[in-house]
C-alpha cells in the first residue's frame, strides 16, 4: 500500500465511525424485561401512531409536543402492560436514560395509561418543528408533572427491570 492509499483508507474509516456514531445517536433502544428488545430510529417512530400533547416546559410557556405515546413503544417491545400488569409484574420499573448519562425512574404502572390515565410522550417535535439540537432527537414529555425534572432530553434508552 502506498502512503496515499493508507490515508484514503484511514479517512474512509473515520467517516464510517463518525456516521455510525451519528446514527446511534439518533436511535432509541428498549431493553430489559421485554419480549422483543428494540432499537428504533426516527423513521420507525414516525411509522407508529402519532399523538400530541400540550404542556408547560421549564420556561413556563405552553408548547405543543408531537411524537409517540410511551405505552405504544413499550407495547411494541412486548412489555407487561394493561391487564397483564398485576401480581409480581407490579414490581417492574422503567429506567429512562439520556445521552449525557441522566437517568430517571418510573414504576411501570405509572407509565401505563390504563393505570394512570395519562399520556407520557416520546416527542420528536415541538410547536411543529423538530426538537432542537441538545434536546432531541427524542425527548420524554410528562404533561401533568408540576416540574419537568423527569422530562429527559436526548432520550437514548428505556430499560424495564424487576425491583426484586
UniProtKB/TrEMBL annotation:
<dbReference type="Pfam" id="PF00174">
    <property type="entry name" value="Oxidored_molyb"/>
</dbReference>
<feature type="domain" description="Oxidoreductase molybdopterin-binding">
    <location>
        <begin position="27"/>
        <end position="159"/>
    </location>
</feature>
<protein>
    <submittedName>
        <fullName>DMSO/TMAO reductase YedYZ molybdopterin-dependent catalytic subunit</fullName>
    </submittedName>
</protein>
<dbReference type="InterPro" id="IPR036374">
    <property type="entry name" value="OxRdtase_Mopterin-bd_sf"/>
</dbReference>
<dbReference type="InterPro" id="IPR000572">
    <property type="entry name" value="OxRdtase_Mopterin-bd_dom"/>
</dbReference>
